[in-house]
């Protein structure tokens, strides 16, 4: 896969802000994006056989998928600035890391809200979204 794909919850304000953060710190355009609710996102979830009950950001890379803290920390590795350093937490067993990830994930709608539409990205940024050409 030339560009890893990040599948995100398109209805979650926190998830949208996370995508905006990744775009800002991914100056080389390494990642592509798709909403999990969109047609392409659904096709990718099926193609990678991601279980339906997964409630997480999902990173698709080299015929594998990564979820929860594993996805977030692998994404950090490719970001500019000091964010790369967070990938060192991959040495911590995933059940421990995911305990904290799950607290945020389970409360994200309550804490950050839900939305019906996303901010329209620039034409250049739009190219990085698989369901926006």
TrEMBL record:
GO molecular function: protein-disulfide reductase activity
Domain of life: Bacteria
Signal sequence segment: none
Family annotation (Pfam families): DCC1-like
InterPro entries membership: DCC1-like, DCC_oxidoreductase
Ranges that cross the membrane: none
Coiled-coil blocks: none
Protein name (database record): Thiol-disulfide oxidoreductase DCC family protein
Species the sequence originates in: Cerasibacillus terrae
């Amino acid at each position: 896969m030339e560009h890893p794909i990040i599948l995100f919850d398109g209805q979650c304000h926190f998830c949208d802000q996370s995508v905006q953060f990744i775009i800002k710190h991914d100056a080389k355009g390494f990642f592509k994006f798709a909403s999990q609710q969109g047609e392409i996102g659904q096709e990718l979830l099926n193609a990678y056989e991601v279980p339906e009950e997964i409630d997480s950001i999902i990173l698709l890379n080299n015929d594998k998928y990564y979820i929860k803290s594993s996805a977030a920390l692998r994404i950090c590795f490719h970001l500019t600035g000091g964010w790369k350093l967070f990938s060192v937490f991959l040495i911590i067993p995933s059940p421990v890391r995911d305990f904290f990830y799950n607290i945020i994930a389970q409360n994200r709608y309550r804490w950050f809200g839900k939305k019906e539409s996303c901010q329209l990205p620039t034409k250049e940024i739009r190219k990085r979204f698989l369901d926006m050409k």
